[in-house]
């Protein structure tokens, strides 16, 4: 089936639109834009390292100071500084915090890989669920600073991680330019074929 004049005009409009889009995208990917994106990425990697450092602090408190932020309501021998005589619960929380810190460190180093990003995101989701469920549902602790602050910190980090991953995984300009070239080649081929058919 031969393309009519309306199809050719529509294809020409689409190709011109793709050209303008590729120009806009290429302008965004100038050297200055790339430098700004790299700075934002490195800043967020530092933020992930900071959150991991906070979890390492929880690990240190749990293992070496026998302090645990959960279980203080049910533990009658725990004082206001969350010191437990039974060391099982602080050790479990310490191992969980250490595992979460390792996940976040790997996520910050390999943020371009989706599996590492999902592991880091799920570790933060589990941390939020743990803290809020212990305070609200199980009532083993109260909504104090040591529960609210990590939950807000992990929530903000989750939002930032989602935005950064969307920025990293956007389609590159080369793909758009390659599609424009393919459309131009196809349009030229159709015009040449139509001209040859008319000549015959």
TrEMBL record:
Q: Looking at the keywords, is Secreted present?
A: no
| InterPro entries (UniProt xref) | Erg28
State the PANTHER family in the record. Answer: ERGOSTEROL BIOSYNTHETIC PROTEIN 28 HOMOLOG (PTHR15451:SF19), ERGOSTEROL BIOSYNTHETIC PROTEIN 28-RELATED (PTHR15451)
Membrane topology term reads: Multi-pass membrane protein
In Swiss-Prot or TrEMBL terms, this protein is called Uncharacterized protein
Nucleotide-binding listed as a keyword: no
Intracellular or extracellular location(s):
Endoplasmic reticulum membrane
Task: Give the GO cellular component terms, alphabetically.
Answer: endoplasmic reticulum membrane
Task: Output the Gene Ontology terms for molecular function.
Answer: protein-macromolecule adaptor activity
């Amino acid at each position: 089936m031969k393309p009519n004049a309306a199809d050719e005009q529509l294809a020409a409009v689409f190709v011109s639109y793709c050209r303008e889009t590729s120009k806009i995208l290429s302008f965004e990917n100038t050297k200055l834009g790339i430098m700004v994106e790299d700075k934002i990425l490195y800043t967020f990697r530092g933020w992930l390292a900071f959150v991991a450092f906070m979890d390492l602090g929880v690990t240190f408190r749990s293992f070496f100071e026998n302090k645990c932020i959960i279980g203080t309501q049910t533990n009658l021998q725990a004082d206001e500084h969350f010191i437990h005589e039974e060391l099982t619960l602080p050790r479990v929380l310490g191992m969980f915090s250490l595992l979460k810190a390792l996940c976040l460190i790997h996520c910050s180093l390999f943020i371009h890989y989706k599996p590492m990003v999902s592991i880091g995101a799920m570790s933060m989701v589990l941390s939020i669920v743990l803290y809020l469920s212990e305070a609200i549902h199980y009532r083993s602790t109260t909504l104090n600073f040591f529960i609210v602050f990590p939950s807000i910190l992990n929530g903000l980090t989750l939002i930032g991680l989602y935005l950064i991953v969307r920025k990293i995984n956007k389609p590159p300009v080369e793909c758009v330019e390659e599609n424009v070239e393919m459309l131009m080649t196809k349009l030229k081929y159709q015009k040449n074929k139509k001209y040859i058919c008319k000549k015959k």
